[in-house]
Amino acid sequence: MKRKFLALLLLTPLLPSAAAAQAYRFEITPSAGYRFDGRVSAYDDFGNRIDNRNRDLRLDESGTYGVTLDVPLANSLQLELLANHQSSRFSLDRSFSSGEQRLGDVDLDFYQIGLLYQWGRGQVNPYFAGSLGVARLQPKFAESDSRFAGSLAGGAKIFFNRNVGLRLELRGYYTSLDTSYQNVDDRGFRYRTRVSQGLYQGEGSAGIIFAW
User: Fold this and answer.
1) For residue range 22-65, what is the model confidence (pLDDT) as tens digits?
2) How much of the chain is helix, strand and coil, in % rounded to 5?
3) For the chain, which terminal residue's Cβ has fewer other Cβ atoms within 10 angstroms, N or C?
4) Is 180 helix (H, G, I), strand (E, B) or coil?
5) Per-residue pLDDT tens over the stretch 115-130
6) Is 43 left (phi over 0), alpha (psi -120 to 50) or beta?
7) Within 13 Å, how many C-alpha atoms sit on residue 54's CB side?
8) Rg (alpha carbons) of the chain, rounded to whole number
9) Please, which residues have CB within 8 angstroms of residue 25's CB and are 6 or more apart in sequence?
């Protein structure tokens, strides 16, 4: 009995480490969601918003699907790899009397890497995450292009058991669409103006977590 008691005392300092080690798990989450209308905002070199004369370029709302891989870095910190797809179309909002003009279909793919911080050790684990990467724009009416993109997210992981859970998330996306235009001044000199344009989108999604 004394030997068992002594062994238990020796193992007691290791129990918190063992419990913490259980939190170091890989997670893969296939998900589906709905992405809301994305508006393109344009600003000049001085940070002033450009008047588009009642024309507003928009990426229409539609469904999305994708997958997220989370790699454990620490007890509450994960490295996150994200890839998802959206099929939508570009539209041009004109004045109230002119209505809407459809420009064409487009596929949008995000490929990003970031960090996820979560808290809570029970069944429900809230989290927030941020990531950077590229957005692959593939319009049906123009050449494909890859642009810098980033996202911020918040949500919760709800585990049914150690290996399976539900992930509920709200995420906002930013895609850089910076362009430059060639202009001619009153004296005939040509110069280029850089215009900072950004596509902003919001998304709600749900996915099934497979952890091991």
Assistant:
1) 456 899 999 999 999 887 765 555 555 544 444 567 889 999 99
2) 10, 65, 25
3) N
4) strand
5) 999 998 789 999 999 9
6) beta
7) 8
8) 24
9) 72, 211, 212
